[in-house]
Design goal:
The protein starts with a helix and ends with a helix. The protein is α/β, with parallel strands linked by helices and 295 residues long. It has 2 domains: 2-117 and 232-294, Periplasmic binding protein-like II (D-Maltodextrin-Binding Protein, domain 2, 3-Layer(aba) Sandwich); 120-224, D-Maltodextrin-Binding Protein, domain 2, CATH 3.40.190. Helix 1 crosses helix 4, helix 2 runs antiparallel to helix 9 (259-269) and helix 4 crosses helix 10. It is built from 10 helices and 12 strands. The chain has helices at 2-16, 50-61, 77-82, 94-104, 143-155, 192-197, 206-212, 247-256, 259-269, 280-294; strands spanning 31-32, 38-44, 64-70, 88-93, 109-117, 120-122, 136-140, 183-187, 202-204, 221-222, 234-239, 273-275. Strands 1, 2, 3, 4, 5, 11 and 12 form a 7-stranded mixed beta sheet that branches. It has a 3-stranded antiparallel beta sheet with strand order 9-6-10. Strand 2, helix 2 (50-61) and strand 3 (64-70) form a beta-alpha-beta unit. This is Methionine ABC transporter substrate-binding protein. It is found in: Membrane. It comes from Corynebacterium qintianiae.
């Protein structure tokens, strides 16, 4: 029920927020210019990052001009794509897209993968897990991050889930406390750095690391980007279903994995972004599985 309520909230917010689209709402399909270049209207919330500067430059070298539509929030992007205000997006994880599809009754598809941002466990003045048994670990309490944070602890061997617990979306209630080495408390994501500064171990999202001045490389544990548990958090390129075979959009996925963009990603993320190459069939299989879980 919690997942359904959360998904419904996303749908309502998305519908209300479509006015936040930064550019016009007219349909704009890929068009070839007189010099043979193709223009693609792409939506993102990350346009100010170095990776997007490198992406735009590298795409131009490949004959693709990016018309970047800047969004300040997540909710308006998927509706903009569904309504043909943009042609493709690169801003969300598979998990977020699944929540949108399930709540809005849509079927946006994935044409390619980007990076995954590693989620880490941080413990002030510690460089390993030595001595962590018996500690209380703070994790973010929002539905999109809480399950992943708990799974960071599962992968680190600190937490054991009860039999029958949801694999990808566990909550603190799903933890077998008697079989676990640490206890878990869920707090607002913005409060996880405070827990860290108080000396408690905390799983902290990357955006809060930079705000709190915490070195991303100082984590004592982190999720494995190649683990099945991390798959929902792969960032993806999203299109409408009838564009899955669009060669220009597929080329953009290749450009994102270029050395230039990858290096810029490393700079943006403090080394916590890892490029992930998965084929679209596998990515959409993961997506569909999550959609069923959120329905």
């Amino acid at each position: 029920m919690q997942l359904k309520r959360f998904a419904a909230a996303i749908a309502a917010t998305a519908i209300a927020a479509t006015s936040l689209v930064a550019c016009g709402s007219e349909t704009n399909s890929s068009n070839a210019s007189g010099d043979g270049k193709v223009t693609v209207k792409i939506g993102t919330t990350d346009a100010d990052q170095q990776a997007w500067t490198a992406f735009e430059k590298k795409a131009e070298e490949e004959g693709i001009d990016l018309d970047i539509v800047r969004f300040t929030e997540y909710p308006p992007v998927n509706p903009a794509l569904d309504e043909d205000q943009i042609e493709i997006s690169k801003f969300q994880t598979i998990n977020y897209q699944a929540q949108y599809n399930a709540s809005a009754g849509k079927d946006l598809r994935i044409i390619g993968s980007g990076e995954i941002n590693i989620l880490g466990l941080y413990w002030k003045d510690h460089d390993s897990l030595d001595g962590i048994e018996g500690e209380e670990v703070a994790v973010p309490n929002d539905p999109s991050n809480q399950g992943r944070a708990i799974n960071v602890l599962v992968q680190a061997g600190l937490v054991t889930l009860k039999e029958g617990a949801p694999k990808l979306t566990p909550t603190p209630a799903d933890i077998d406390e008697s079989a676990s080495k640490v206890s878990v408390v869920a707090v607002d994501a913005a409060q996880t750095p405070s827990a860290y500064n108080e000396g408690r171990p905390a799983v902290i999202n990357n955006n809060w690391l930079s705000r709190a001045g915490i070195d991303p490389a100082s984590s004592v544990a982190a999720d494995d980007p190649n683990s099945e548990l991390a798959e929902p958090y792969i960032n993806v390129f999203t299109v409408k279903g009838d564009q899955l075979d669009n060669e220009t959009y597929a080329k953009l996925v290749e450009v994102w994995h270029s050395d230039e963009v990858t290096e810029a990603l490393n700079q943006d993320s403090g080394g916590t972004a890892v490029q992930v190459k998965r084929d679209k069939e596998e990515l959409n299989e993961i997506l569909d599985g999550l959609v069923e879980e959120y329905k």
